[in-house]
Amino acid sequence: MSVLVTGGAGYIGSHMVLNLADAGETVIVLDNLTTGFEWLIDHRVKLVTGNVSDTQLVEKLIAEHDVEAVIHFAGSIVVPESVENPLKYYKNNTASTRDLIEACVNGGVKHFIFSSTAAVYGMVGLEPVAEDVLLNPASPYGKSKLMSEWMLADVAAAHPMTYGVLRYFNVAGADPEMRSGQSTAGATHLIKVAVQTALGHRAKMSVFGDDYPTPDGTCVRDYIHVSDLVSAHALLLDHLRKGGESTTMNCGYGRGFSVDEVVRTVKAVTGIDFIVEHGPRRPGDPASIVAGADRIKALGWQPKYDNLEGIVEMAYKWEKYLDTRNDRPSIL
Length: 332
Ligand code: UFG
What we know:
By secondary structure, this protein is α/β, with parallel strands linked by helices. Helices cover 39% and strands 18% of the residues. One of its GO terms (molecular function) is UDP-glucose 4-epimerase activity.
């Protein structure tokens, strides 16, 4: 039996592959390599280059490798891009997921784990958000993921498949052994941008808005280490394999840091002062989004890297490692 990881050549997917391979699982990666990198994939696993919407290919893989579970990471993830190009998101996230689920149903896959996002909540207050609040995604990205959540629930009610949905908060950091890290070209995420600025790859960076109703006026986010995030997937897979019910869970630590706090931490950890401008708000940004983490903790999740300095340190170390590669993904 094996586990099929879609998007396994991407940032989070490649960490999932490491987690599964370290646990002795047989893993197949399906990735079209548009944003992922072959060199990020652990050598112990098989890479198949292709699209998750290629139902024929997926059904063939399921049959050939006796796929018991699918962990679905492949998709597009940039909130502002989804506002400019919504159809890309409905295609890559919603339509493709629909096709993948169909292949899984046809192939008799037992369990499906889906990477969803805190963006399904939209604008919430300053308190940690629980899974069962009214969902009101503010961006096409959040909507494209929420539709997939709904599809999964409907499909699992009609077919013998259980699912786990994890709603990710702000994922950052890198594998503590430096086997993988955030390598996406043109990354827009705060910690990545800040460590790149510290390294001089960007002349300066901007804080998007400082007039939010938060303690220091900048946005608050729940930054979670990528290795803790993938360990939550492993736990969820174990839960489903033991006959556990389908479930939807936030994946964050339940505490937040402001943009200014993150920038200060990057300066402290790297020991480098860099230019930070305070600019206008970025469209679609909620003031604060922090995970209510009761559900995932009740499942027995024990995060190991809940420490912003440590997360930044690993992100910084990975960025320096990328500098040593001739094929370094482009910064901008
Ligand atoms: N930010 C800056 N300057 C930058 C980059 C980001 O000020 O150069 C700010 C943003 O405005 C935001 C915060 O830093 O307030 C975090 O921004 P990111 O782009 O790092 O992350 P987002 O919060 O926009 O989005 C991330 C994921 C989504 C997920 C969301 C849930 O990319 O997939 O977290 O909170 F849905």
